[in-house]
Amino acid sequence: MHNLKNNKFLKLIKLVEKNKSIYLVGIIGHSTVEASIVMILPFLIMNMINAAIARDVETIKKWLIFISIVAIAVSVLFVVFGTMLYRTININTAQIRLRIFKHIEKLPIQYFDENHSGNILSRVSNDLSIMESAYTSALRNLIYSVVSGIGSVIAMFILNWKIGLILILIGLLFYVINLKLADKITILSSKVQLGMGSLTELIGNILSGSNEIKMFPIQDIISNNIKEKNEHIYSLIISRTECSSLVDSCNFLVSWINFCAIFAVGAFLVVNGEVKLGLLAAIMELLGTVSSNFKKFGGLVGRFQYCLAGAMRVVELLEEPIEMEDLKNIKDISSKEKYAIQFKDVKFSYDNKNNILNKLNMSIKKGQFAALVGSSGGGKSTITKLLLRFYNGYKGEIYINGKEIQGYSLKELRKMIALVPQEINLFHGTIEENIRYGLLEATSEEIIEACKEANCHQFIMELPEGYDTKLNENGSKLSGGQKQRLAIARALLMNRPILILDEATSALDSESEQQIKKALNRIRQGRTVLAIAHRFSTIKDADVIFVVDKGRAVEKGTNSELIEKAGIYKRLNEFQYKMEARV
């Protein structure tokens, strides 16, 4: 049962979903109809030759009428089964593509942290195309080869059982040869697909890091990396080709021996008068079909295994576990709770070895403007990721409005929080469309008001097309500060009770920073703001500041209180002041 569950072919067929029956009828029918011509043709040849030798005109006429009817029937069935097959697969491929995109949207952030975007892109594009080939040409040709081969052997037994027996023995030899080498071809095909995914990753890095590659003298290093990966893939393809060629070579040798043996036996039987010339011609026609199938069979198996390996990479992506709701039956005390955010003895590790958070305790009251400061790697950004449940598996308790975050559905939880991330992502489209993603039903006036609060309205209006300005890939023509202000406007438009700024003012110039500080004083009214601070000047007016060091909140207080304590906060503050003074 376990082997059936993990059978690659069954997984491939299972993906056809609702149209499985139509697909199977289509592909088997299409292959069988084509193979039927091969099985009927020898009987036509035999009877036509024997009738011609006997000058039996009536028999010739009957067979001509019969083959004409068969040709018409086959043509009609070819269209019917072909339509069933290819229409089903076209629909199925579109459905799988949509299913992949929906599945990717539900994957946890951890998956994207651990898998390169180029690898994912390779599965969605290259491997999905290969999967389509597995459903159509690769499997169809394999079924045709098997059906026509078996049909030819049966026809051979009908014509002459002695020669048919020889063919069976030769066929078993072919089967053993192909079976032995099929696994090796499968392994090599899987390695080729992994190599292609790795190469796509590297190309993705080159495209995203083109500026750095041009600035730094690393062109040769990048070129050598591509060369090494390309040569590795090339060597795997050569090995797979050699393996397939060995199968073809063995098949050719055995089929040639088979041809000579059966021709000699048939000729001997004709000379002795045991069979007619028409029968020998029919047998040789069947033998040609069988030999051709045997010679191609190894290559067809190899091609199907290659397509199956690509298809399994798509299946693996679809089998990746999605974000779990993990809802707990927790009593809701939010109406009585004065804290918006609480962390109680929270421990967390990305690798289950080294703790990023180590018994973190932190409480933020509703309506407070709170800030997190500390050295890089101290766990500040991890706190926001846990709040949004981008990661699970922590120990301790995390509350929002007095309710553990596992008690909310993901949709409920994320509807309470607006996030301005450290790395801004803008989508292809206009500036207005990008901001409207914060609230799809927002009016143009509401969008403009949010942009004014985020201090980006002025620079937008200075653009030739204003809010209708088209953004290219990730807004590359905008400055870092401009992109951050657009992201802040988008978050403000959400109007969520909790706003998280993850170093969202780090790329702003001093003038823009002052405008954002003024905006923060306005938007903090009626909502809780949590800012991860890059610049201490941004959070001087915060109600409470937490100094996070080695996964703990080691200091807490207002700006003036922490300066008086003369601890880590004061030291970091003075260091930043000196660095800014030098600039």
What is the CATH T-level topology of the largest domain?
ABC transporter transmembrane region fold
Number of domains: 2
Helix content: 55-70%
Distance separating the two termini: 69 Å
Largest sheet: 6 strands, mixed
- Mean of the pLDDT scores? 79
Architecture (CATH level 2) name of the largest domain: Up-down Bundle
Write the layout of secondary structure elements.
Elements: H1 2-5, H2 8-14, H3 20-53, H4 57-106, H5 109-114, H6 117-159, H7 161-208, H8 210-215, H9 219-271, H10 277-318, E1 339-349, E2 355-365, E3 369-373, H11 380-387, E4 395-400, E5 403-404, H12 410-414, E6 417-420, E7 429-430, H13 431-436, H14 444-453, H15 457-462, E8 470-471, H16 480-494, E9 498-502, H17 510-523, E10 528-532, E11 544-549, E12 552-557, H18 559-565, H19 568-582
Parallel strand pairs: 3-10, 3-11, 6-9, 9-10
Antiparallel strand pairs: 1-2, 1-4, 4-5, 7-8, 11-12
How would you briefly describe this protein structure?
This protein has helices spanning 2-5, 8-14, 20-53, 57-106, 109-114, 117-159, 161-208, 210-215, 219-271, 277-318, 380-387, 410-414, 431-436, 444-453, 457-462, 480-494, 510-523, 559-565, 568-582; strands spanning 339-349, 355-365, 369-373, 395-400, 403-404, 417-420, 429-430, 470-471, 498-502, 528-532, 544-549, 552-557. The protein has 583 residues and is of the alpha/beta class.
